[in-house]
Amino acid sequence: MIYTVTLNPALDYYCTVESLKLGETNRCIREALIGGGKGINVSLMLAQLKVPTTALGFAAGFTGEELIRQLQAQAITADFIRCEKGQTRINVKISAEEETEINGRGPAVSAAEREALLEKIRGIHPQDTLVLSGNVPPTLPESIYEQILSQLEDPSIRVVVDAEGNLLKKTLRFHPFLIKPNLAELRQMVSNPQASLEDQIQELRQLGAQHVLVSMGAEGSVLFAADGSVYRQLPLSGEMISTVGAGDSMVAGFLASLENQSASFEESLRWAAACGTATAFSRGIAQRKQVEALLKQIQIVELSGQMPKISFPL
Ligand SMILES: Nc1ncnc2c1ncn2[C@@H]1O[C@H](COP(=O)(O)OP(=O)(O)O)[C@@H](O)[C@H]1O
Ligand SMILES: O=P(O)(O)OC[C@H]1O[C@](O)(COP(=O)(O)O)[C@@H](O)[C@@H]1O
């Protein structure tokens, strides 16, 4: 079973305005309110790919109930700890000339509620996959992911972490199976953000990372597999609608491919890229048929033995 943990899930309020004018009343030409948060998005994409997941995390207030309702409508097991104070945040995603996001803070999680979630995570079985994704609500310590990982006794539990800065960096000593930084997140974690991509990945390896999937938005992605091989995904051109959840979709695609025991790294990256790209070309998480339509178009180049020369848009 794949368990996704979203400590600070959200309802994502997508709105499209023709042109965003700060300091003025802007009117949407399109809007939608869709359950999100990084782990939730991983579960939503995996549901599209017919891979069962259990979504864990905290939910609060009427927004939390709506989030759970949406997950259940997609046949995702939503096993959330209900928080008494505050409400699940609403994150605003504005599409205009460019994308603008305003993410909320999230509910107050009490010590008892935190312990109840840790208890649930202790129930995860050997061979299961645990995906830790996204930000944490303000009342939880930054060490929460470390707390979660230090209580996992079975090394066969496959851990995936997708978070920013120290939240991610401090989990590396637990040797996560997969991390998926985007370029900005990668730079936040390394001692020298101007260093070559090779040196940046090397630094993360030394800290304990196994597979590192670097997503680069419209530039595609690069998979640095744990065995040292490197694969570059060439980007597809198409109409970008919203990149919200594109990175989460990549994580889901990668994990879904592993359900097929014989999947090669190339195949896993192809699935990851098809899912990420399909979501970037959709509003919300893409549907399976969109992923399948892109799968054949994704081009992967093996770069083993040589590190990719990628000039970052610094
Ligand atoms: N504008 C785009 N055009 C083509 N592919 C895209 C675009 N934006 C995202 N993607 C695909 O989705 C993946 C994840 O997107 P990215 O924005 O890097 O993730 P995140 O949401 O974590 O920042 C990219 O690696 C790429 O494969
Ligand atoms: O937990 P954070 O870092 O505040 O991010 C939450 C936001 O990230 C998302 O999960 C999208 O993530 P990505 O675009 O990185 O894939 C949104 O659904 C959500 O609003």
From TrEMBL:
Catalyzed reactions per annotation: beta-D-fructose 1-phosphate + ATP = beta-D-fructose 1,6-bisphosphate + ADP + H(+); D-tagatofuranose 6-phosphate + ATP = D-tagatofuranose 1,6-bisphosphate + ADP + H(+)
GO MF annotations, alphabetized: 1-phosphofructokinase activity; ATP binding; tagatose-6-phosphate kinase activity
> Known InterPro entries for this protein?
1-PFruKinase, Carboh/pur_kinase_PfkB_CS, PfkB_dom, Ribokinase-like, Tagatose/fructose_Pkinase
Question: Which family would the database say this protein is a member of?
Answer: Belongs to the carbohydrate kinase pfkB family. Belongs to the carbohydrate kinase PfkB family. LacC subfamily.
Give all residue intervals belonging to the Carbohydrate kinase PfkB domain.
Answer: 12-285
- Keywords associated with the record: ATP-binding, Kinase, Lactose metabolism, Nucleotide-binding, Transferase
Described by its record, this protein's role is as follows: Catalyzes the ATP-dependent phosphorylation of fructose-l-phosphate to fructose-l,6-bisphosphate.
EC number(s)?
Answer: 2.7.1.144
Protein name per its UniProtKB record: Tagatose-6-phosphate kinase
Q: Name one GO cellular component term.
A: cytosol
Pathway(s) the chain acts in: Carbohydrate metabolism; D-tagatose 6-phosphate degradation; D-glyceraldehyde 3-phosphate and glycerone phosphate from D-tagatose 6-phosphate: step 1/2
Gene Ontology process terms (BP): carbohydrate catabolic process; D-tagatose 6-phosphate catabolic process; lactose metabolic process; small molecule metabolic process
